[in-house]
Amino acid sequence: MPDLSNFRTGSSSDAAGQRHEGGVVRMTQAQSGDLITELDEAKLSRFHLRAVLVSGMGFFTDAYDLFVIGIASTLITKEWNLSSGQLALLNSTMLAAAFVGALVFGRFADTAGRKRVYWVVAAIMVAAAIGSALSPSYWVLIAFRFLLGFGVGGDYPVSAVLMSEYAGRKDRGRQVGLVFSAQAVGLIVGPLLALALLGSGAGAPVTWRLLLGIGAIPAAVAVWLRRKLPEPERFTAVAAKADAGQRAQGRRTARPEAGLRAFLANRRLLVLLAGTAGCWFLLDYAYYGNTISTPRIISLIDPNASETETIALQLAIFAVAAVPGYVLAIARMDRIGHRKLQLVGFVLMGLCFAVISLVPGMTTAVAPFLLVYGVSYFFTEFGPNVTTFVLPGELFPTQVRATGHGISAGIGKFGAFIGVFLFPVLQSSLGLRGTLLLTAGISVLGALLTLVLPEPAGRSLEEISGPVAGAAQDAGLAPAGQVIRAA
Questions:
Q1: How many CB atoms lie within 10 A of CB 431?
Q2: Domains in the chain, CATH or no CATH each
């Protein structure tokens, strides 16, 4: 494991004018401006790559745990004779918990610091993954899946915000996108493990327990590595300026009261939140509803497919269609523009789902269906699945950045919960074609809502949120976490 105890973003502490007095970080306004400029112009360094690795380790766990349940639940259903309602609840419980975890830990990361939250959420994931694997009954498994989702939800805002605040302005999208791309690895590893276990002769009861328990391993590694990550200097700079202002006025520094209420009362922040959270809600409704239900979709298209064949087809869709989408998004998003990429991706997603729904025979012919379904996955990854994670970590001011991202991620996971829970119900009432036609309409709505967002690519975080940050301060939103103890 790499030693991260001396991680820095490549800036010089002395050159930035940073010093420690009594364990509290101090910085003048001019010195803070010099530091921000230095961070904005920083080139990709070994520090950034290590930070991507550490953040990605946890995000791989998030994706693995969220999506492997689609395979595990098919095995659990046969062993425990689950009803369709119980299956829907099992598949969606973690997403409902992620909604809560993103809200709670997003706000906590602004008030207590990003670093503290980061290793705590990984520790929760370790305990919950082990508990899920050892669950003796359905309701115990539901409880541990809820706890796991609570930790995963908290991981979303901190992963994005940390990487956004570490990165320079020119390749911020690529660096945050690299963290998110660990989702692609999680999508592939789950089906591969399932195929290996089933192919080795392990029975269904052993296979699903191992699939759920293995998620504890990368989470445990993340716990150790994340304890050594530094607090982002953008965050400590804002906190130090607020602390200096308070002391200059002869007042003791105190944690701001009603910060969340002030945030939600600010019109400009609410417009941004409507765009980021609304787009994430619509994307996750479509993406998780289809992805977790992919084994069910394949069984509807090809009723004669075995469990192994169904998993293999799912793996092929991810490897051939989704992974190239992630790679191309990371490589090109800073040049194309984060907002523009999201807009185009939503439009082409909607077009693919419309073709499947409206062209006769598409839901009964395996090859044409898989081709168009795979193209939809490509444009999901080369588009809103990546950008809905990146944009909220850029558009909000530093003092409420994790709060804004946490609300966006939480509402997104609520959309995922609805999509996963409703998919079997809609498929029964509307049929597969009707259900996917509704998904096409959802994609169009996502494209329209994207238009309310500004383009952050290539701009400093402080430039993006400057006027909004001032408005937030006018609303009484003093920077959170005003006292940051030096490590």
A1: 14
A2: 27-474 (1.20.1250.20)
